[in-house]
C-alpha cells in the first residue's frame, strides 16, 4: 500500500477518507513486540511464534517483484509470508482476548471474504443497509492484521487509523472481526472460547487470478501473472501456503461453531447460502429479507458501494482523479471460471496436479469450473 507492497509513502488524503466515514476512532499506538510445519498447524498443536528473514533467491525474487527490499519475512508456525511490521503484532494477536459473542470471518485473500463479511454484518445488524452504505468495512468488520500491512508509513493518516489490533480490542461486543491469518497465528482463545467462525474458500485457479490483480492494484506487484503463479504454487505468495490455510479450517467444519463456505456455492445459489448463514448465526430471516439482502449483495451494488469498493482509499493513495477501471478494481469481476482467460493449458494442468496432491484423502472437493 502507498508505494510499496505492504506499506510506504504518504497519504494525507487518506485521513480525509477515514474522517469522512468515521473509521476506527483515533487510537493510541502501542503495539507489543514480541518451519513451515503444516501438519502441526492443522492438528492445532500450540507453538511459539518465530520470525525469520528471507535469504538468497527467495528474498531477491520477492524484493524484485515488489520493488522494495526486505518486503516480507517468514512467520512460523505455518511458513507464512508477512510484512516485517507483523513482528510488532504477532504475539499480541496470538494472546488476545476472544469474546464468546465474537463473529470471526477467516479466509485466504480474494476468496470472497468481502462479499461474505458484508452478508454476515447485515444479518447480525438487522439489515441496516444505511450504515452498510456509509461506514467502511474497517469500521464495521476490522481487519485484525491491517496495521502490519501498512508497514512503516508515517503521517496524519497513519495516526488516524491507529492500531488495528487495538481497534479490535476496543470494539464493543458483539465484534465482527476479519482476518486472513492462518489458524496457527490466530488467537489461542479462538479455539477454547469457541465463538462463531465463518471460513470462506474458493477454487485455487480463480482465487489466484484475483489475488494477482489485487496485488497489482494495492501492493505494487511488478511481475507477470505466470511469475505470481509460480510463487503461489510454491507457497511463497504473501500469506503463505494456500491449502494449509484452507485445510486447517476444513478439518474443523463439523464443529458447531464453524461454518465452512465456498465462493462457488455463493454464486450458484446465493439465497440458500444467505439462509444457511443466517441460521448458523441464529438470526433467521424471512423470505422477503433474504431477497432484500441478496439485492444489497449483488455484484452491481457491491461495486458501487464506496463503503466497500475502496474508492476513497484508492483516491487517497493515487490522487482524487483516480478511477478504478478494468482489472484495476477492488470489486473486479465476481465470476467463476475467469481463470480460463489467463492460464495456459500447461499452467492449468500444474494447478490441477497441485490441487489433487494436496486434497487427496481430505474429502474437500471443488466443482469443476
Automatic annotation (TrEMBL):
Gene3D superfamilies: P-loop containing nucleotide triphosphate hydrolases. This is Sulfotransferase domain-containing protein. Residues 101-363 form the Sulfotransferase domain. Belongs to the sulfotransferase 1 family. The keyword tRNA-binding does not apply. GO terms for molecular function: sulfotransferase activity. PANTHER family: SULFOTRANSFERASE SULT. Keywords: Transferase. InterPro entries: P-loop_NTPase, Sulfotransferase_dom.
Amino acid at each position: 500500500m502507498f508505494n510499496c507492497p505492504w506499506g510506504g509513502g504518504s497519504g494525507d488524503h487518506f485521513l480525509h477518507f477515514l474522517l469522512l466515514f468515521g473509521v476506527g476512532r483515533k487510537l493510541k499506538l502501542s503495539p507489543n513486540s514480541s518451519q513451515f510445519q503444516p501438519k502441526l498447524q492443522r492438528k492445532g498443536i500450540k507453538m511459539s511464534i518465530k520470525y525469520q528473514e528471507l535469504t538468497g533467491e527467495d528474498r531477491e525474487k520477492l524484493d524484485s517483484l515488489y520493488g522494495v527490499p526486505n518486503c516480507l519475512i517468514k512467520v512460523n508456525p505455518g511458513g507464512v509470508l508477512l510484512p516485517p511490521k507483523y513482528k510488532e503484532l504477532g504475539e499480541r494477536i496470538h494472546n488476545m482476548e476472544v469474546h464468546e459473542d465474537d463473529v470471526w470471518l477467516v479466509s485466504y485473500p480474494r476468496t470472497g471474504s468481502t462479499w461474505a463479511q458484508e452478508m454476515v454484518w447485515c444479518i447480525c445488524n438487522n439489515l441496516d443497509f444505511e450504515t452498510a452504505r456509509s461506514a467502511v468495512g474497517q469500521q464495521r468488520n476490522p481487519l485484525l492484521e491491517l496495521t502490519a500491512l501498512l508497514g512503516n508509513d508515517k503521517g496524519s493518516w497513519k495516526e488516524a487509523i491507529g492500531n488495528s489490533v487495538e481497534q479490535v480490542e476496543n470494539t464493543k461486543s458483539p465484534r465482527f472481526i476479519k482476518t486472513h491469518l492462518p489458524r496457527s497465528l490466530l488467537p489461542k482463545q479462538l479455539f477454547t472460547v469457541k465463538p462463531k467462525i465463518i471460513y470462506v474458500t474458493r477454487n485455487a485457479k480463480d482465487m489466484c487470478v484475483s489475488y494477482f490483480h489485487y496485488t497489482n492494484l494495492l501492493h505494487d506487484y511488478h511481475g507477470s501473472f505466470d511469475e505470481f503463479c509460480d510463487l503461489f504454487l510454491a507457497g511463497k505468495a504473501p500469506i503463505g501456503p494456500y491449502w494449509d490455510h484452507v485445510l486447517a479450517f476444513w478439518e474443523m467444519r463439523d464443529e458447531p461453531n464453524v461454518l465452512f463456505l465456498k465462493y462457488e456455492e455463493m454464486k450458484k445459489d446465493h439465497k440458500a447460502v444467505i439462509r444457511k448463514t443466517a441460521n448458523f448465526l441464529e438470526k433467521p430471516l424471512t423470505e422477503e429479507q433474504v431477497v432484500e439482502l441478496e439485492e444489497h449483495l449483488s455484484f452491481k451494488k457491491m461495486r458501487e458501494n464506496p463503503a466497500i469498493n475502496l474508492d476513497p482509499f484508492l483516491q487517497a493513495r493515487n490522487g482524487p482523479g483516480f478511477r478504478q477501471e478494468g482489472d484495476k478494481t477492488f470489486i473486479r469481476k465476481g465470476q467463476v471460471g475467469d481463470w480460463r482467460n489467463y492460464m495456459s493449458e500447461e499452467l492449468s494442468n500444474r494447478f490441477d496436479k497441485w490441487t489433487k496432491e494436496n486434497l487427496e484423502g481430505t474429502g474437500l472437493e471443488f466443482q469443476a469450473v
